[in-house]
Design brief:
about 575 residues; disordered N terminus; 8-stranded mixed β-sheet; single chain
């Protein structure tokens, strides 16, 4: 550590360092919690940004983990202060947690900027909490590190492991087909979620935790250790210790997060079979920190082999992934395959330090680079006259035979239309039909809900059909599977060509070559456009109106236009 770094004044001294009225007020009110004089003596103040909530079941273990972080902060000579922010429970929140990701980011940004802290630990887990916190923190740019809540223990049903989301979709279709009794379906519910933590499949929560680790924003092993494993509490303690050191080193978020870190995140997402939702989150974080990144950059992962055999792309679960070696073992394989970029991390070291000495302990769960679960299985970016600004497909969770397919469209004009007609025995569909759902993008739902993995029509389910091509401007759960085209941009409500598709139109999907094409003439498309008008917005007030008026499209990360970029950490005016 240089003398210059040692002498850098702490941001918190603007609150606690004086002998005037303002400093008196700041210190005096904090002392009503029992803090003695010496904690205001110039030690780093560490904010612990907590998304704990009983309405966010994934995150209910964060209250305990916060105590572990505090132990580490105190040990390192810091002053920990825990504060709450909005918590977004993916499984509980209507119309979709994604509607409120940007609201959480605003909450986090202003809470950090307006309060006396020198560094911040982000405690997140459930799908939107991790990216929302990182977006807000990036716009302030203090030393920042993440502790994830960790996955649940494996689900259990009739002596077998079952996984969040992935098996729910399978069981639900089995009930519709008459292959599973309703009694068994209800019994599986009680064995699915057996502990604190996020989905134990490689859903969006575990995907984002894996990406955060691969980007060097959390300590090694953060992503996969089960929420109830004592080693996660130890990790929280070590994180508290490390954030104090980061403040002393002035290792801010912008000094860590460079393009190479984002590229490592994209590559790691492909290797673990990660969620399509990572695209909108990574793009939004990049927009806040000022790193140029586009949807096309996700093609960097398209030729990366699938190394992690976890649901929904494989058969195992996050608990198995942890015991097999976790993200460090994956990074070691990517390094051996020449795919890991040099990039600084919160350790102050290169990401190679995370891979150093890492081993695979179960090659059924984590495969060597030269013997993958599937070759070239990263997300693919699709373009064509339906999606001029891009769409996303996850080949590792798709049916190979459907990745190159042409068929007639059956259009659902809204989610209500789909729900009302999907089980109609007279629905004019065959296994070759391409299901199209409109009106579910950022503006349309609003919030771009996880409804893109449309159910298979009831009459086809009963015939044994379990996958079809589905196209929408929506997202899908990271736990979901199938040949599902998502994030079509521009969306229907923004005047995108998806809104012009009609039942009976033929659509061509060529995932290998990145093509999604509506097979009608340009003249016909323009004639339809001339007769199209946007639907009336459902929301006319409050945050939802602010969101609909300002949200960017999926290919830009679906942030609010006025939140892109940073305001920094300086607030010049005092409160009294």
């Amino acid at each position: 550590m240089s003398d210059e770094t040692k002498k850098k004044p702490l941001r918190s001294r603007h609150w606690y360092g004086g002998k005037d009225k303002d400093a008196f007020i700041h210190r005096s009110w904090m002392k009503n919690q029992g803090f003695p004089d010496h904690v205001f003596d110039g030690r780093p103040v560490i904010g612990i940004c907590n998304t704990w909530s009983e309405l966010t079941p994934c995150n209910h273990g964060l209250r305990t983990l916060a105590e572990g972080v505090k132990r580490g902060v105190w040990e390192a000579g810091g002053f920990p202060v825990e504060f709450p922010v909005s918590s977004l429970g993916e499984t509980q929140l209507r119309p979709t947690a994604m509607l409120f990701r940007n609201l959480l980011a605003m909450d986090v940004e202003e809470a950090i900027r307006g309060n006396p802290m020198d560094g911040v630990v982000l405690l997140g887990g459930c799908d939107k909490t991790t990216p929302g916190q990182l977006m807000g923190a990036a716009s302030v740019d203090l030393p920042t590190i993440v502790v994830s809540s960790g996955p649940m223990l494996n689900g259990k049903f009739k002596g077998k492991d079952i996984g969040s989301g992935t098996d729910v979709w399978k069981f639900s279709e089995a009930v519709r087909a008459g292959d599973m009794t309703l009694a068994d379906f209800m019994a599986a519910e009680s064995g699915m979620s057996r502990s604190a933590g996020v989905c134990m499949t490689m859903g969006t929560a575990s995907t984002m935790a894996s990406i955060v680790e691969a980007m060097g924003l959390a300590l090694p092993t953060n992503a996969a250790l089960p929420a109830v494993d004592a080693r996660r509490m130890a990790l929280a303690h070590l994180t508290g210790k490390r954030i104090v050191e980061m403040v002393e080193e002035d290792l801010t978020l912008s000094k860590v997060l460079k393009r190479e870190n984002f590229e490592n995140g994209i590559v790691a997402n492909a290797a673990v079979g990660g969620s399509t939702n990572a695209v909108v989150h990574i793009l939004a974080i990049a927009g806040r920190i000022g790193v140029p990144l586009t949807i096309e950059d996700f093609e960097l992962g398209s030729d990366i082999p699938l190394l992690v055999n976890c649901m929904p792309s494989g058969k195992y679960l996050m608990e198995d992934f942890a015991y097999a070696g976790g993200v460090p073992a994956v990074l070691k394989q990517l390094q051996d395959g020449g795919q890991l970029r040099k990039a600084r991390t919160v350790l102050g070291k290169d990401i190679a330090a995370y891979a150093d000495g890492a081993e695979i302990f179960n090659e059924e769960v984590i495969r060597p680079y030269d013997n993958p679960v599937k070759p070239a299985s990263g997300l693919r970016v699709l373009k064509g006259n339906i999606a001029p600004n891009g769409a996303i497909i996850k080949p590792s969770a798709a049916t190979d035979a459907l990745l190159d397919h042409e068929g007639p469209a059956h259009v659902f004009e809204s989610i209500e239309d789909l729900k009302a007609t999907i089980d109609d025995p007279d629905l004019d569909v065959t296994p070759d039909t391409i299901l199209v759902l409109k009106g579910c993008g950022p503006k349309g739902y609003p919030g771009m809900a996880e409804v893109g993995n449309m159910p298979i029509p009831g009459k086809l389910v009963r015939q044994g059909v379990r996958d079809m091509i589905r196209v929408s401007d929506a997202r899908m759960s990271g736990t979901a599977f199938g040949t599902v085209v998502l994030h079509v941009s521009p969306e229907t409500q923004a005047g995108g060509p998806l809104g012009l598709v009609q039942t009976g139109d033929r659509i061509r999907l060529d995932a290998k070559n990145g093509v999604l094409q509506l097979l009608i003439s340009d003249e016909e498309l323009e004639a339809r456009r001339a007769n199209w008008s946007p639907p009336e917005p459902e929301y006319t007030r409050g945050y939802a109106k602010l969101y609909v008026d300002h949200v960017l499209q999926a290919d830009k990360g679906a942030d609010l236009d006025f939140l892109v970029g940073a305001s920094g950490s300086h607030v010049k005016r005092e409160s009294h």
